[in-house]
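Researcher: I'm preparing a figure for a lab meeting and need a structural model of a single chain. I don't have an experimental structure, so a prediction will have to do for now. The sequence is pasted below. Please return the structure as C-alpha cells so I can convert it later.
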Amino acid sequence: MGLFSINPQARPQLQLIGGQIPALLIDGIFDDPAELRQHALGLDYRLPDYFYPGKLAEIDQSDASLRQLLASILELVNHEYLPRIPPISGGGRQVTAFARIQTDFAITDLHPDELQATQRVPHTDPVPIFGLVYLNEVDRGGTMFFRNAEGAQPAEQREGYFTSKDSGFEFVGKIEGIYNRLAIYPGFVPHSGEIAGDWILTDERFTSPRLTQRLAFLP
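Model: Understood. Here is the structure written out cell by cell.
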C-alpha cells in the first residue's frame, strides 16, 4: 500500500477521441485519490519556466508505490498502447518502446487576464506521448484536441483560455476530466486544457484548484 497504490479493479480502455485520436483511459486508477490529492496540495510548488498556466511540484521519486505505478503504466503503454496506434517518432526515429516516465503534479490557477500569448492557444508537448491523472472531485475540465485550421487569430490578440468554439483551430474532441482518471494520448496533437467556469475567475482557483498528475514518456 502507499499514496500511489493502484486500484486493482481499474481496467484500461482504448478510446478514439473524435473518432480519430487514440487515447488510453483508466478510470479509478488510484486506490485512494482523496488522500493523494490532499498530499499533493501540501507540497511546495514553483512557477514553471515555460507555458504552463500555473505551478508545478516535484514528487518524491523514492516512494515505492510511485515506482510501482510508473513501472505498471510503462509496461501498459509499451505493450498495449504503442502496438495499437499508428507509428510515432521521437528524436528523428520511430519509437518502439519508452524507457522511463517523468512525473510531477500541476495546479492550474492563472487568471485568464494574466495569460501570456502562448498560453491562449492550443499547444503540443515536447514528448510524443503524454499522460494526465485528473484529481478533481469537482468539475475542473478535461483536455480538448484540435486540428490546425486557416485564419487563426494571432495569440497576441486573443483573450482568456482557448475554448472549443474559438477560431483558428478545428475542434476534434475531448477527454472528459473524470475524477481519478488516467488519460494517455499523443502529445504531438494540438490540445488545450478545458479551463472554463467561474472558479478560474475567483479565489476558488486557489482554494479548490485544478490538480493533475502529469506523465511524460521518454525514450
